[in-house]
Amino acid sequence: MINESGMFSLALPIVAIAASALIMLLAGILSKRDHAFAITGAAIFVFAIVGRLVFVTPTGVGFHGMLITNAFTRFADILVLLGAIGALVLSASFNQRVGIARFEYPLLVMFAVIGMLVLISADNLLSLYVGFEIQSLSLYVLAAVARDNLRSAEAGLKYFVLGALSSGLLLYGISLVYGFAGTLDFAGIARAASGATGARLGSMVGLVFVLVGLAFKVSAAPFHMWTPDVYEGSPTSVTSFFATAPKVATMALLARVLFVPFGPMLLHWQLLVEIIAALSMIVGAIGAVRQTNIKRLLGYSAVGHMGYALIGIAAGTAAGLRGTLIYIAIYVVMSLGTFGCVAAMSRKGKPVERIDDLAGMAGEDPRYALALAIFMWSMAGIPPLAGFFGKLYVFLAAIHAGLDILAVIAIATSVIAAFYYLRVIKVMYFDRGAPGFDPRSIGMNVVIYASAIGLVLFIFVPGSVTVASAQAAHVLLGSGF
Amino acid sequence: MNNVFVNMPILSVLIWLPILGAVIILAGDSDRDSDGSRSRWVALGVSAVELVLAIALLVAFKPHASGFQFVEIMDWLPAYGVSYHLGIDGISLFFVILTALLTPVVILASWREYRRVRTYMAAFLLMEALTIGMFESLDFLLFYIFFEGVLIPMYLIIGIWGGERRVHAALKFFLFTLAGSLPMLLALVWMWQHAGTTNMVTLAHTQIPASVQDWLFIAFLASFGVKAAVWPMHIWLPEVYGEAPLPGTVMLAAVLSKMGAYGFLRFSLPMLPEASAYFAPLMFVLGVVAVIYISLAALAQRDIKRMVAYSSAAHMGLIVVGIFTLSIVGIEGALFQMVSHGLVIAALFLCIGVLLSRGQSRMLDQLGGLAARMPVFATFLMLFVLANVGLPGTSGFIGEVLVLAGAIKINFWVALLTGTGMILSVAYMLVLTRRVLFDNARYPSNIATNDLNGREWLMLAPIAVLVLFLGIYPDALTVPFGHAVQTLVHETLASGRAVPSGRVAMVTR
Fold this sequence. Notes:
The complex is a heterodimer of chains A (481) and B (509).
Chain A (H helix, E strand, L loop, with lengths): L11 H19 L5 H21 L3 E3 L4 E3 L1 H28 L5 H18 L3 H19 L6 H32 L4 H8 L3 H21 L8 H8 L2 H7 L2 H15 L6 H24 L4 H22 L2 H26 L2 E2 L2 E2 L9 H4 L1 H15 L5 H15 L3 H26 L12 H16 L4 H15 L5
Helix pairs in contact in A: 1-2, 1-4, 2-3, 2-4, 3-4, 3-10, 3-11, 3-14, 3-20, 4-5, 4-11, 5-6, 6-7, 6-8, 6-9, 8-11, 9-13, 10-14, 11-13, 11-14, 12-13, 12-18, 13-14, 13-17, 13-18, 14-16, 14-17, 14-19, 14-20, 16-18, 16-19
Chain B lengths: L1 H5 L3 H18 L9 H24 L8 E9 L4 E7 L1 H20 L7 H20 L3 H10 L1 H11 L4 H30 L4 H5 L5 H19 L8 H7 L2 H26 L1 H27 L4 H21 L3 H30 L12 H4 L1 H15 L5 H16 L1 H27 L15 H19 L2 H21 L14
Antiparallel strand pairs in B: 1-2
């Protein structure tokens, strides 16, 4: 593109977070008391500033083809920052309550976000891998942040072992692609993929490994095994982060990797993505039915949602990509709200996580019950809530691309999924009980109510998100619906 | 009066006013409304204003104008051909009015509800808004949103205030309806990408390949069939009608079941004319089986609420037969029957509510002798029972005769078997009347048997007047919807592939 080496300024958001994270790290170490709350606030502030910086940063390719910024990366960046801000707001009071309020927590989130911004903008398999590892290592530590808690430590270890395996697969795939295509550059791979048969076949093998590594991170079936355990074991503040920002980043990366370097091989990977999407929807729907722990339920639900989002990518069109982006954007808001509600579930300072603990919530705290009911209905895709529009756009793409069977599987699993979302509402509204939860902090209320209102009012302004995601999709694929 | 409406988006007001009412009720200070009386009055006031507006709509409606009236159109997703598009014609007009009439009635009927009054009243207002919005929509996506959005308030109504097995019934209702309507979502998406718009007027004139029409028809059948409880998609109905709180049952039977029948008229016929003609025999079979089988099932019931529920489903069979005669007489009969059934079934369920509120049992063998002790109630009940079996002079008669007149021109046996259902309905309704009103009293004497109070008069009397009025002066309905039905039938038949020549010519008005 234009004057490649001169485009260092496009790493501005990444540099800004890194610099402030290092300063905050120093401050945290040198100060005598633990200023976890202040540092969390500062991290939120930095993310908000960076959210503005993302728009100021020029678009283009920089660092000798390592990084790229365009409408697509901006869209994903904003979602990642939104998820991170929401998760940090929730964590401020939750961590204090469960006694893990340490200044490392917001810093680890910041480092993870750095990784995500790098991998969203990666234009080279090497920078992709570096971003991937920055993100993953921070996440492993976050999962085990409640180090005195057996379950948290187990979750961290499990995530680390399986995550390392997936990173290995990814790296192996990258090396195969490099071997056959002769380059790590996205544009170069695309040229090789559309060229000689030999290089294409070899890259195909590499692509499968890359796909598996990424599918692991977005917790798509059959690579979802870690999700319910890690969701359940990690502290809720960490889970709320896991459920939002990394999902966006990896899904965006998955879309970019498939559409840009491997775009010419659409016919080769389309079936693969279809299978992963179908399996994810089925596993997500059936696995969640028997869960009694709300975080495990949400873990399986996340697997299912990733399946729906993948439908758009499987369609292989700009309309499909737009559907995926809208789906992910709405999913982030739904997840934040839901985990806000889960974080608020505690009695006498001890978190409770069984669905049955919510019994009688509608009588005791109608606003909380209504908000959680809105999240559940939205996740089930019931109009007029925003979740419906996410499904609508991916269905539109699927039918448009002729993926009728996938669409039929999607509606069948939607009905099954509705069953378990409804169970949460049923427990709150129809069952008797006295939850007696602790009062919620301001941060939790802000996240819960803002998400609920956003999901309800989305119907009035579907245009803005649609247009932004359509622009983002058009960057990767020239034409559109 | 007309001048006022020219500048007023009355259809939007009809949708948004109840939503505003629901928000006011929910956002209100719960401490100052501990007994819920404020919520009751807000709900009653809002629904009464709705009723006045709906009547004004009827007055301002021009029966002889063609096309949709009071049309409102606003960009919503302009890039994808989706708009906020409202309008009514003769077909939808009466369902808007029916909904607006029955909502204040059910709010009156639940005046003694003391559990979570705020949520209750908000749910009913929300349901009114969504239902009216569905009947007014001229955009398929908007229609779908309203159509499925109704599930949310109804799920809560059944689950919170229902009977013993309410949780199970609520879940059953939700999942059945959702499973039915998701295929329609796929059909909607297919038609959207085929035509590039979701404007229903455009879609009605879009040519769809015959092979696809069949699939779309099946998708629509799954969705509208479940909602209208067409046999065999009625299996959710007995338990849900039985367990829902009475006002909820009234809305389910009188209004929500009409959504399905309305869907057939608004979507299946005009958009899929060839498939409609192709599948008409199947629909006759479903309708006839419903009429006979469900009537027999009603005869076997011991519980009056379930008996009326089955009766409701049996009459929906008649409506389906009427719609798929694809003739003007048959469809007019079906429409007439839809309105009449909405009034009569609502009134019958309200009568049961009157009994329950006096501590009476729902079981037939524990009731009896009420004719002597509650004469006014007995008169009302008798009137509605007779209207339900289609006695001449009541609204039920007109609808059934028109449907049969339409059916007999298509096939003698369809008409005969449908007629059998009418006879069976006489059988079970008379069993009900005899047991409730005339047999010896078997209940303990401490149960109150005071006759109707003022509130109950207010609920039942308007419906009774309407039932008699429509029975004597059917033109009040047939003239306003006549034009729309004629257009519908001509357009459907003009493009149908299996048009029996002369089917139109035989119709005489």
